[in-house]
Write the structure tokens for this entry.
Amino acid sequence: MLLSNKKVLVSGCGFSFGGQERKTWVNVLRSVGVDIVDVGGPAVSNQWILNRVFLKLLEDSSINHVVLQLTSIGKLDVEVDTQRQIELVDTDSLRNFTVDGIWPSSVSVDHESKKLYNQWLFSPRLETQDVFCKTMLLHDWCKSRGIELTVLQAYDIPWTDQQKVSLSSIVLNLSDPLYDQYQRSEFYKCHDHVGQNTVPCKQYQIDLAAGICKHIDNMFLSRIQRISQAI
């Protein structure tokens, strides 16, 4: 018997994605009984994060709550074939993996093509505008269908002042990204951060899970608190 009638769709980068070695708040919520569909991925871009949410909502009408975790801009997801796998993926020092046939290159510049992309093609204003438009449209789409939407920002995004005004009632932590919160927390200094992996430590993920749980269903909070006390 389900403890709650909430079916939660989550999409985010490695800060949230539950299918990786480091456990996240998604794993914590699942462990206490929250019904979660996770369509995020490690190092993926906002394009992936937003598109996967909408496509899953079209596919599954039983979802009644969405947690959207926005990531930083400047990430590039690339479709992979055999040649790209050998040339781009296998030779990368950090992003040497694919997700559903996509190489989440993130901000890697090992390959010359990424260096050239960053120098000549990356367009911060246009990318931020794209994230803004999709987030606003997703908010209206969910509202019209009675689907609750919780939007969190993991890293800083260079919103314009006008965009901030429009997003102020949609993005819960618009001026204080999750990673900034993590760096200020008591957990950050106690965790060994290796390389470029910015996935927060387990203690912080449990604390974050409790905060997100308040927007989903308070009935799971006591279980999360017991996990926190056992650490």
About this structure: The first strand starts at residue 7 and ends at 11.
